[in-house]
Design goal:
This protein is α+β, with helices and mostly antiparallel strands. It has one domain. It is built from 1 helix and 3 strands; from the N terminus they run βββα.
Length: 71
C-alpha cells in the first residue's frame, strides 16, 4: 500500500491497481499482482480506473494551483 501523502490522503484502487499523489507533485501508479504478475482489468474496470485517475489529476492540479487553462 502506498505511503499516505502529507495533505491529501486519496488513494484510487481498482483490483490491484493503485494510484496516489506523492509529495504533492506527481501521480504514482502501481498495477501488479501479489506475485508480480500484471493486473488484468475488464473494460468496465478500466473505465472506472480512468475516471478515478481523472479525478485524482484534478486533485493534483488543485494542490498545485493549476488548471487546464494554464497550459
Amino acid at each position: 500500500m502506498p505511503t499516505p501523502m502529507k495533505s491529501t490522503a486519496e488513494v484510487v484502487r481498482v483490483k490491484q491497481a493503485f494510484a496516489w499523489i506523492e509529495e504533492q507533485r506527481a501521480i504514482h501508479l502501481k498495477a501488479v499482482g501479489p506475485k508480480g504478475e500484471p493486473v488484468e482489468l475488464t473494460a468496465e474496470e478500466a473505465r472506472s480506473l480512468a475516471e478515478r485517475l481523472g479525478k485524482l489529476a484534478d486533485t493534483l492540479e488543485a494542490v498545485l494551483g493549476r488548471t487546464d487553462d494554464d497550459e
